[in-house]
Amino acid sequence: MMKKFIGLVGTNSDNSTNRRLLQFMAKHYANQAEIELLEIDHLPLWNKPENYTVLPEVQKIADKIKASDGVVIATPEYDHAPTAALNNALAWLSYKTYPFVDMPVMIVGASYGTLGSSRSQIQLQQLLEAPELKAHVMPSSEFLLAHSLEAFDTDGNLVFERKVKELDTIFANFLQFVEIIHHLPNAHEIGEETAEKYIWDTK
What's the predicted TM-score (pTM) here? Predict the structure, then answer.
């Protein structure tokens, strides 16, 4: 059965090459997996709800992630870190809903310069593996797309052939990684209990 992945756009920018990268992946790998893009620009700034409930817009994202086989997150690099918008989204997604627990995650990133979001990806991996989120991030698999303003043609295709081959290899590895994670002994309930215990503020 074809895998279903969520492609999480890690920015609130209207014109993001990270969004273009996920759009390319959705098209390029359409015969291997379904990749549904999700945006985070509509989420309010993190503020604990007075009634201790999950906002509907957050619950919608959480439900889609939980129903998927894995998540691909595309992160820019602002001041050598993930965007405030992405940090904000992860804060919401670690509050009373735990969609990333035991979830296979692949991180990719695009940047206008030469670094390709390398430092941002390292920090994002640390965030995703924190006790509040407990994702399974595929190790040693950074995909760094530098000079991203020049990377796509008018049809949205990635024009750097070497990077396409590199991405093909990493995505193939991710498909295998997803299978491995799904065959691990199921401790999802324990994972959720652990994540809930680490919440910084409880009722």
Answer: 0.91
